[in-house]
Amino acid sequence: MGDYNEDTAFLGQTGPYFWTTFFLLNTVFVSTGFNGLYIVFVGATPKHHCFIPAINLTEEWKNAIIPVTTVAGQVVQSQCSRYKLEVVRNLSAEGYIPGRDVNLTSLEQEGCLDGWNYSKEIYQSNIVTEWDLVCSDQWKVPFASSTLFVGYLFGSLISGQFSDRFGRKKVVFISLAAQCVAVLLQSFSHSWRMFCIMFLFVGASQISIYISAFVLGTELLSKTMRVLLWLGLTHMFIPESPRWLLTQGRVEEADAIVRNAARKNKVAAPQVIFKEPVSVPSEKKYTMLDVVKSKNIRCITLMCLILWMAINIGYFGLSLNTSNLSGNPFMNCFLSAAAEVPAYIVSTLLLKKCPRKSLLSTFLIIGGGVILLIQFIPSTLHYVALALEMTGKFGFTMAFSIVYIYTAEIYPTVLRNVGMGMCSSAARIGSIIAPYVIYLGEFVLPYILMGSLTISSCVVNFFLPETLNKDLPETVEQMQEYYG
Fold first, then answer.
1. How far is it, in rounded angstroms, from Cα 367 to Cα 385?
2. pTM of the full predicted structure?
3. Percent of the chain beyond pLDDT 90?
């Protein structure tokens, strides 16, 4: 196969065709953004204590029936136990005064047999209050979060295979339809189990959209426009990847797409665009095994897997922790998300000129450093913790945008979606772990591990090849030639 970049150089680096494709692809990305982190709110645990049924108790016993405990130096009501209702009722009926006539610490306690009372100060209703996901069932909240990321894992594994075999465009729009159905069904969930199952399908379809659309944009857009793909519609307006079509021997379709791009960019296309004859593609279909057959590609893939996993642990660790920070959780989440906007803009500017390796290492250190610090900030210094959270999100968002571009530039066209899918699968292992790290957030050690892993991944990054200003490899042989 001829050199695609050379054959299509007449299109230029920008123009109406590239800008239209760019904005249409970004509308697809926007559709994936609504579902990723809303679990921060629907899975948030409001203040709660045992429900006390309407029985005849004195006012003193009504106020004393919930035991108190000390948490982080503050005296608070127990969330998972009450003094045994029958004992309290008898003591109240006999006229005993709690704390004066009765030593409360000696009273027998029981669980919340009649359910819980939840504070409505912030959340009126969510999955925690609807299905009582507290106390012995509180593990179900991080499990629900993880089902989304398990869906990401499955979607990452299969989307690359389907996209390389059937085309990027088909997978993008089939996945869009699947996501719409899954989200609709999840909104009508009547149980925690159904919610989790639907969340699995939401995750699988969402990551399939994201990876396939990203690869499609990487292959459709020019070298200049490619790095813009990270800022921020219909099937007939987004074309298939000409690069992929050429690898499948579908030259006429690739030719038609490129000529259409020339018309939109108002440039003249040569009479013969793809000058060298295109060989008929072999029956070989590339799979994940092809990514690990060659020692060179295997080592590159292993290093990419480590990077993606470390970045995802840090990113989702910070993101899912926003509801646990002091202050209004909605404002905290808004500011945390707002920190990502300048990160995308800055990364776009830096990726045009700067080496990928040094950029990635710099922002991994920033994000990992914040994780190491944020858990040691006392609750009284709310604004300091929030500033660190925003700094960390900035660093991890930068790392996210860089690693996506970087990985897509390393792999050849015939393996790009498979490679991206494998890396995304490793990333999902990190994001599956992240909710449980937050669940165990009262212990400092998990955060030390997360921050240390992120910072140490910088060492791995230095062994990857630099891709700045290099053409995208089309074949495995070209990849080995570029980075051998």
1. 14
2. 0.69
3. 7
